[in-house]
Amino acid sequence: MKDYHISKHNSFYTIGLNYKKADAKIRGKFSLNELAIDSLLIQAKGQGIDGLLVTSTCNRTELYGFAQHPFQLIKLLCDNTLGTVEEFQEVAYVYKNNDAISHLFKVGTGLDSQILGDFEIISQLRQSFNRSKKLEIANPFIERLCNSVIQASKKIKNETEISSGATSVSFASVQYIMRNVPEISTKNILLFGTGKIGRNTCENLIKHTANSHITLINRTKDKAEKIAGKFNLVVKDYGDLQTEIRNTDVLIVATGAQSPTISKELIYTKKPLLILDLSIPKNVSDDVTELPNVTLIHLDHLSQMTDETLEKRKQFIPEAEAIIEQIKEEFIQWLETRKFAPVIKALKKKLKVMKDEELNFQSKKLSDFNSVQADIVSERIIQKITKQFANHLKGDDIDADNSLALIQKVFQLEVESK
């Protein structure tokens, strides 16, 4: 990457772990909340890293950035999570340059999601970029790459059916409930946690189960009340959690806490209780399974569901991959133009020096010299000359390196290095 004048570091890396090799417990150790991501980005900036993107979802934690060696990024991750380097190496992957770019395209377009075609990741990538930009650690490469991935995601969603049917873990959880809980429309359902996954699950429950016995609990009650008002649901105080669990048939937990919020001590039930934990790290203690009548399902189980909808989606993978290749190629072409950007910039600077010298000479020589008009004309000529050189360098049949060397030699350019 050093030839592209993007970063002072030589290579672009993706380092991370996901659901394919890391179970929920390990993913929980390496998960990052918003404060931890900010801390990581600030620490990276302090270490001289000049382009970094961080994502952490229930299915994956990944860093995309420039570094001299991938261990710089691995250490940043381990410094800001509960995971160790040894644990990371057991389940991790590292991609470099073009492979790292390709991986981000697959992630952002739902091809690498635990449920094929899940497009929730793209909004998370957008948020990740905005966070990096706010902290001034998103260079032009990161910005252009993110925009290209977002473009590919939109095109795939609009032009293929890879996202038809269920598109998320939240829908899969409702699908599981409908298949495993008889007479679901008459059961009591308690949703604990009304973040994004909780909201989506709530909407899917109402849409597909025709159940009017749904109760919401959230640590911040007003957030739950906003959703309840939309769907005419019941909201209870956080202090009523234990009582409500006793009365419920299905408990859905999506609190997003860093440690379990539901333990064996909270549960007293004489009837079957299905608990779905949609959180990373796990928000339900494993010890609840020691209780009679309690069934615990974690999102890893839900994501492994293979139904007709998912099988149908696989047919559209080639179409999606073709779209990715097209937009990735456009990104690579833009990247190639970065090779000669410093030379074009130096050429423009040199031509402007020539212009200023000549205009200064003519203004002294001619009494009626129109310096304003001459400046406008000269600037337009400079723009056309530099554009001509840039178009020449973009040509497929051009040896760009030799052309750049010739331009530098002819105009005696001093090219700024990154």
TrEMBL record:
Pfam families: GlutR_dimer, GlutR_N, Shikimate_DH. Residues 179-304 form the Quinate/shikimate 5-dehydrogenase/glutamyl-tRNA reductase domain. The keyword NADP applies. Substrate binds at residues 57-60, 113, 118-120, 124. The record marks 103 as: Important for activity. Residues 319-413 form the Tetrapyrrole biosynthesis glutamyl-tRNA reductase dimerisation domain. NCBIfam families: hemA. This is Glutamyl-tRNA reductase. It comes from Cellulophaga baltica 18. The gene is hemA.
